């Protein structure tokens, strides 16, 4: 009788531990999804600002049509990207084309002085800062989740329940700095 109670007690304790670990992993995975959603919100804001920036610059940059087209194409690629890896590559390309636009705009004093352009670039810079913060938060949550799914005994539960590792949102070395805007 005592051994039966002991076996049942150990079984109940095992189930409780499993449920506790499983719920912890679910919470960590949800934090990763939330982190991605925060990045997505800021990227949408960035994507919404870019057409206004391009329209403002169009009148001044008549001879720089290719630069404007590249920014527009890169923005569309970023909007259409799916998944972390594709989004990462598209956003890095968009950052690069925006830098080209800002560099070209340096050659146009009227554009540099345009209040709409100044305001849009300030908003874009603020958004870039928010994106960097959201990426940091997301990567911190991915790290917590990935560590939890790899350490014992959580790794056993993670393997049994199908928890897969998540991927970090990386940036290219050149894109780690906030774009500098000079007027």
Describe what is shown at a glance.
With 183 residues, this protein is mainly α.
Keywords:
183 residues, mainly alpha, de novo design (two linked rop proteins), 6 helices, 79% helix
Structural class: mainly alpha
What is the CATH H-level superfamily?
A: LemA-like domain
Number-wise, the strands total 0
Averaged pLDDT:
83
**What would you call the shape?**
rod-shaped
User: How large is the share of residues in beta strands?
Assistant: under 5%
CATH class: Mainly Alpha
The CATH topology comes to de novo design (two linked rop proteins)
Taking pLDDT < 50 over at least 5 consecutive residues as the criterion, the unreliable ranges are none
Which helices and strands, and how do they pair?
Layout: H1 2-58, H2 65-80, H3 83-105, H4 109-113, H5 115-150, H6 154-161
Helix pairs in contact: 1-2, 1-5, 1-6, 2-3
Question: How would you portray this structure in words?
Answer:
The protein has helices at 2-58, 65-80, 83-105, 109-113, 115-150, 154-161. The chain is mainly α and 183 residues long. It has a single domain, classed as Up-down Bundle (de novo design (two linked rop proteins)). Helix 1 crosses helix 6. The chain starts with a helix and ends in a 22-residue tail after the last helix.
């Amino acid at each position: 009788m005592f051994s039966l109670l002991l076996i049942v007690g150990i079984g109940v304790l095992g189930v409780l531990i499993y449920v506790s670990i499983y719920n912890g992993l679910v919470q960590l995975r949800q934090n990763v999804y939330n982190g991605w959603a925060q990045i997505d919100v800021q990227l949408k804001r960035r994507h919404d600002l870019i057409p206004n920036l391009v329209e403002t610059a169009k009148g001044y940059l008549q001879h720089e049509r290719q630069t404007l087209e590249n920014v527009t194409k890169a923005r569309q690629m970023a909007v259409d990207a799916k998944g972390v890896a594709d989004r990462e590559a598209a956003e890095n390309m968009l950052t690069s084309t925006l830098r080209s636009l800002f560099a070209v705009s340096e050659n146009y004093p009227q554009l540099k002085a345009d209040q709409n352009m100044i305001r849009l670039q300030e908003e874009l810079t603020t958004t870039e800062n928010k994106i960097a913060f959201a990426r940091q938060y997301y990567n911190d949550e991915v790290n917590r989740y990935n560590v939890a799914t790899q350490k014992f005994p959580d790794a056993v539960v993670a393997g049994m329940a199908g928890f897969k590792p998540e991927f970090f949102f990386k940036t290219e070395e050149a894109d780690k700095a906030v774009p500098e805007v000079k007027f």
